[in-house]
Amino acid sequence: MFGNFFKPKNLDTSRVPPGQVLTEKFPVLTYGPTPTVRPEEVRFEIKGQVEEAKTFSWQDLMALPQSDLTADFHCVTRWSKLDVQWSGIRVPDLMQQVKLKPQARAVLVHCYGGYTTNLTLEDFLLEQNILAHKLFGQPIPRDHGGPMRLIVPHLYAWKSAKWVRGLEFLDQEELGFWEVNGYHRRGDPWKEERFSD
Ligand SMILES: Nc1nc2c(c(=O)[nH]1)N[C@H]1C(S)=C(S)[C@@H](COP(=O)(O)O)O[C@H]1N2
Ligand SMILES: [Mo]
User: Fold this and answer.
1) 167: domain range?
2) Is residue 33 part of a domain?
3) Within-domain flag for 13
4) What pLDDT sits at residue 2?
5) What angle do CA 65, 68, 74 make, to 5 degrees?
6) Which phi and psi (to 5°) does residue 93 adopt?
7) Oxidoreductase molybdopterin-binding domain: from which residue to which, for each copy (predicted)?
8) What pLDDT does 10 receive?
9) Is the residue at 173 inside a domain?
10) In the chain, which residues have pLDDT < 70?
C-alpha cells in the first residue's frame, strides 16, 4: 500500500504539511455508505441565523457564477494530494444570495447520508472555498462526493463535506460528526490540529 506514496524529490516541500505523505492517487475516504444523489433532486437548503431561509435547485446553483480552483488536499489519515482541480461556486458568490443575521458565528454543513462538519464563519467565508461539482473537468464521481461537495482547502479534508445538502448558520459553533468523535474542532494541517485535547 505504501508503494503509492512518495517522498517529494524536487518538489517544494513547503507544500507538504508536517506528518503527511504525498499520493498521486486519489483515495476515497467515506464513513458509512455512499449516498446516491441525482442533480435533479438536489435541494440545497440554507437555514438558521439567516434573514430568510433559502433552497437552491441544481438549476439555481448552475446559474450562479462558476469558478475553478486548484488546491492541495490533506487527509488527516496522513495522505496529501497536490494540485487537485475543482470547479463550482465559490462560497462568497453563493453568500451573495444570503443575508446572515448579525449573530451568525459558525456553520454546520449537512450532507445527504447524515454526515456533518463545523466551521467558524471566518473559515467558511474565505474566497478559495468552493462548492464543487467538477473534479478535473468532469462531474465529480459519486464516491468523491458527486454531485456536489464543499472544498475547504486550508483545513484537513474531513471539512470538505461530500454530498452537501445544506448549510445551517449558528450563533455559536456546534461540532460535526468527526469533531464530536475526537477530531479537532478546526483542523489546520499546518498546525497538525488532528485531534481534540
Ligand atoms: N459526507 C461525507 N463527507 C466527507 C467524508 C464522509 O465520510 N462523508 N469524509 C471526509 C474525509 S475524512 C475526507 S479525507 C474527504 C475524502 O474525500 P475523498 O473521498 O474525495 O478523497 O472527504 C471528507 N468528506
Ligand atoms: Mo480524512
Assistant:
1) 40-191
2) no
3) no
4) 52
5) 130
6) -70, -40
7) 32-178
8) 62
9) yes
10) 1-4, 6-11
Whole-number Å distance, alpha carbon 104 to ligand 1 midpoint, is 26
3-state secondary structure the chain: CHHHEECCCCCCHHHCCCCCEEECCCCCCCCCCCCCCCHHHCCEEEEECECCCEEECHHHHHCCCCEEEEEEEECCCCEEEEEEEEEEEEHHHHHCCCCECCCCCEEEEEECCCCEEEEEHHHHCCCCCEEEEEECCEECCHHHCCCCEEECCCCCHHHCCCCEEEEEEECCCCCCHHHHCCECCCCCHHHCCCECC
Amino acid at 173: E
Q: Which residue's CA is minimally distant from atom 21 of ligand 1?
A: 28
Domain count, the chain: 1
Cell of 127: 474566497
> What's the pLDDT at 13?
80
pLDDT of 40 = 98
User: Residue 47 is part of a domain; what is its CATH number?
Assistant: 3.90.420.10
The alpha carbon of 102 and the centre of ligand 1 are apart by a number of angstroms equal to 31
Q: Which residues line ligand 1 (CB under 6 A)?
A: 26-31, 75, 111, 113, 115, 144-145, 157-158, 160-163
Query: Is 107 a member of any domain?
Result: yes
What pLDDT was estimated at residue 1? Answer: 46
pLDDT of residue 12: 72
